[in-house]
Amino acid sequence: MKEQTLYIALxxxxxxxxxxxxxGDIATIYCKDKAIDKMVRELGxxxxxxxxxxxxxxxxxxxIELIQQNTNGLTIETIGxxxxxxxxxxxxxxxxxxxxFNVGFLMLVAxxxxxxxxxxxxxxxxxxxxxxxxxxxxxxENPQTLTPGLALGLISYCLGLTIGMIVFFNHGIxxxxxxxxxxxxxxxxxYEQDVNKCIVIDSVRNKKSLDVN
Length: 213
Fold this sequence. Notes:
Elements: E1 4-10, E2 13-16, E3 20-22, H1 23-26, E4 27-31, H2 34-41, E5 44-47, E6 53-59, H3 60-70, E7 74-80, E8 83-89, H4 97-125, H5 127-139, H6 148-169, H7 183-205
Parallel strand pairs: 1-7, 2-8
Antiparallel strand pairs: 1-4, 3-5, 6-8
């Protein structure tokens, strides 16, 4: 019988909704022999605690050990990461009033926090004085009060700032301006990678990762 080769690839992290974890849940498996492929995918790795959320670092060495214990004469080739972070979320709180309240509260904090930051920046950079100078340049009048022309300039500045942020961040509208990821998405992915690295390092140091003995 010709020796079969099985390829296994791990992502940096993966989200599951079932506490019983199989190899196929957390890894991409490929083997020409479909029977071996199916059998390996269904191998049980571990069972997470019955909580709403949990996380566990699983190394590729643990998966190789598990596969070799249940197969004979199988060559295993690994691709990608040497470990993966399994995030478990049962979804019990999905759509709950508490979650909606938290989301709404977070939106309010983000809205007023952003508004305060923009107003502080405008105050420090002297935006009102700049608009006064532009008004004086185009009209020749000294704006002592909030005239209709000056008010129009302030409104135009606010609208331009809003449109500029939407276009720059490429976010906030149903149809994206370009297919490229927005700067916000890029920063979130970089933050996610840093968090995953930190979780892996802490798990290894605390010996909480699922690894070979």
